[in-house]
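Reference record
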Amino acid sequence: MSGSLELLTVGRISVDLYAEQLGVSMREVRSFRKSVGGTATNVAVATARLGHRAAVFTRVGDDPMGDYIRWALDHTFGVDTRYLGTHPTLRTPLAFATMEDPAEPSLLFYRSPQAPDMTIESNDVDRDVVADVPILWFPTSCLSAEPSRSTIHDLLGWRERRTHTVLDLDWRPQFWSSAADATRELDAVLPLVTMAIGNRDECEVAVGERDPDRAADALLARGLSAAIVKMGGDGVLVATADGVRERIAPYPVEVVCGLGAGDAFGGALCHGLLSGWDLPTCARAGNAAGAIVASRLMCADDMPYSGEIDALLG
């Protein structure tokens, strides 16, 4: 991969196993399809597919699944793996997805006793890259355990709230003892980021507001330059500190698997930010990318190319 990085994502990584039989429970599934996954990883894959230089800062296990992830990122998805570490004893996480309800798939995580991606340390990444990369992106799950939590604070200190420092609110209750714990940790990092993205449930955990406009106001009140509130079938609300506020309509599709749509949105958003687009234009591309992935089974494998997004926007 030549040239300077444009995006560095931090955090969750796994081997995802998608049930190939739709509309049935785990006991009825006969086969699974394998891919790489995890929010941070999917956003890096989605952005790389749109022509940008993306890397992920995380760890996998010293096992065949970790080897598969490294190979797939290098050879299939074009994601820079220089900051993909290997933990000597912990296993690479697995995530099983079943589609009883395609819009709300069921996820079963295997991350015990601890996932390698929660053991990242700040000396595993280049400080200058963190400070200078155009987009630094991390999900809330990075804050759920040590040493990952302290590492995120180190990175944000090096970053000094440079644009674009993006927090994906990505609420996963399986990773937390309580929502109050997540709220406390988010409270500490919101003053250190420039943009936050989340759905109504995630905004409620972060700032105590489900109403999109009130949630956006609460996020902007923390000094953020932009807030994006995902509203499901109602699209997204985009709000900026300089007064832009717009509801962006969704693109209706027949949903095959709702997993990964938000990560596709994130990749297209990063593409737009790196291309110099205004935030509503970025969000329109994000909605289109999310719709495309929701109409397909997989996440990383099915992230759209620029021409597909352009065709839907057109």
User: Anything to note?
Assistant: The chain has ten helices and 13 strands.
